[in-house]
Design brief:
Elements lengths: L2 H10 L2 E4 L2 E4 L6 E7 L9 E2 L4 H6 L17 E2 L5 E2 L7 H6 L3 E8 L7 H10 L13 H8 L5 E3 L29 H10 L6 H26 L5 H17 L3 E6 L14 H20 L6 E7 L19 E7 L6 E2 L21 E2 H13 L3 H7 L12
Parallel strand pairs: 3-9, 3-10, 7-12, 7-13, 8-9
Antiparallel strand pairs: 1-2, 4-6, 5-6, 7-11, 10-11
Helix pairs in contact: 5-11, 6-7, 8-9
Length: about 400
């Protein structure tokens, strides 16, 4: 009896063996969606170390205020040490409160290049850093090869590296990159209207800053995004993704761009807050569209790396290292900050600038896959060669 036949037989009995122990077999309808935030999102301003005095010293312009019921732009308390960005108040916080969202700080890869392209490739391939890369072997393609009744899809314009190798996977683009609502001609007309008033300077400066921020982000982050859908595009299309995964597909990947915030990032409000609001509404729409199937669905939100803990001179943040991963699902043990942690202070920064990586992404995903699909050690090692799974008790 080969491996697939054995898996079918044990599934039929309602049991499977994992690492020498007997577990209830995973449900055939289990779904997994990986959401890749291309451009490296600023995790420290999303899952905020509100218990850290150093955070507020390091970010005089970008820090999100400590939890305060009277301040709508303050962080939302998750526990005594951590808060959530207020842009996620109506979308992700309710999932956390219901135990359907968890956050893993100090997570990431051991890739130290701080290059968008190099580290995105590292994560999508899921191979050992430093070894010869096989660009025709993405980790979700390897995962699909280990599963029965798998129906994978990539919600991307081009086939992503993560699904290369193995059998053909369908891909579909879900939207394009958003642009400013007013074009150059309209901006000139509005500026002319205020030309002889006291507001002329403020209006002109407003348009100048808007254009500078958009051009900087689109020129630099557009490369880092690799054609990924914008957060607004994800918000508008997430329900369709949910519908497709509810009815047809059970293994999905989508990338969302717009997270390379070198300039004018904002704090409780501003550019990053707007993108987070769009991302949160998209994920909430996905959950609603999945419906009762949410109890058998897991969503992992990750990014290639975090950003510098200290803000830069342009009121933004630069390429960093450790990040915070999100794990969402109707059947997870959420409502917690999970995984190894250290204090968010100067003494624990990696190379005196970034979050350290205490939970390797391959170990984290390996532990989730082991629980979600009942994969044995041999299967897990074919997906993530040389990586031991970390069971964080999420499933």
């Amino acid at each position: 009896m080969n491996r697939r036949d054995l898996l079918r037989a044990t599934t039929a009995l309602g049991l499977t063996t994992v690492a020498g122990r007997v577990w209830a077999a995973p449900k055939a309808d289990a779904r997994l969606l990986v959401v890749f935030l291309r451009g490296a999102y600023d995790a420290a301003n999303v899952v905020i170390p509100t218990g850290s005095a150093f955070y507020y010293q390091a970010r005089p312009n970008l820090a999100v205020a400590r939890p305060d019921p009277g301040n709508p732009n303050a962080a939302l308390a998750l526990d005594a040490d951590w808060g959530l960005h207020p842009a996620l108040r109506d979308t992700i916080l309710p999932l956390y409160a219901k135990g359907q969202a968890a956050f893993v700080p100090f997570a990431g890869t051991d890739d130290l290049t701080r290059s968008h392209f190099e580290t995105q490739d590292t994560i999508e391939l899921g191979q050992t850093v430093g070894a010869t890369r096989d660009y025709n072997s993405g980790f979700m393609a390897r995962l699909a090869a280990e599963l029965t009744r798998v129906r994978p899809i990539a919600f991307t314009e081009q086939m992503p590296l993560i699904f290369r190798g193995g059998e053909t996977v369908p891909n579909v683009a879900i939207n394009g990159v958003a642009k400013p609502g007013l074009d150059a001609r309209q901006a000139r007309l509005i500026a002319a209207m205020y030309g002889d008033t006291k507001l002329a300077g403020a209006v002109a400066e407003g348009f100048r800053v808007r254009d500078a921020v958009y051009n900087t982000i689109s020129d630099h982050a557009g490369q880092a995004d690799r054609g990924a859908v914008s957060p607004k595009g994800f918000e508008l299309s997430a329900r369709r993704i949910g519908r497709l995964m509810r009815e047809t597909f059970n293994l999905g990947f989508v990338d969302v761009g717009g997270w390379d915030t070198h300039v004018n990032q904002g704090a409780g409000t501003g550019y990053l807050a707007d993108r987070l609001g769009e991302l949160g509404r998209g994920l909430a729409g996905f959950v609603e569209e999945i419906g009762p199937g949410w109890s058998e669905t897991v969503v992992v939100v990750l990014s290639e790396f975090g950003r510098t803990f200290r803000e830069n001179g342009n009121r933004g943040t630069d390429h960093g290292h450790g990040s915070v991963y999100w794990v969402l699902g109707g059947g997870i043990r959420g409502g917690r900050i999970v995984g190894p942690q250290v204090r968010a202070d100067a003494a624990h920064l990696f190379q005196n600038r970034d979050y350290p990586v205490l939970t390797n992404y391959r170990a984290l995903l390996g532990g989730l896959l082991q629980r979600l699909y009942g994969l044995d050690q041999a299967s897990l090692h074919r997906v993530f060669s040389g990586a031991e799974p970390a069971d964080l008790g999420l499933i």
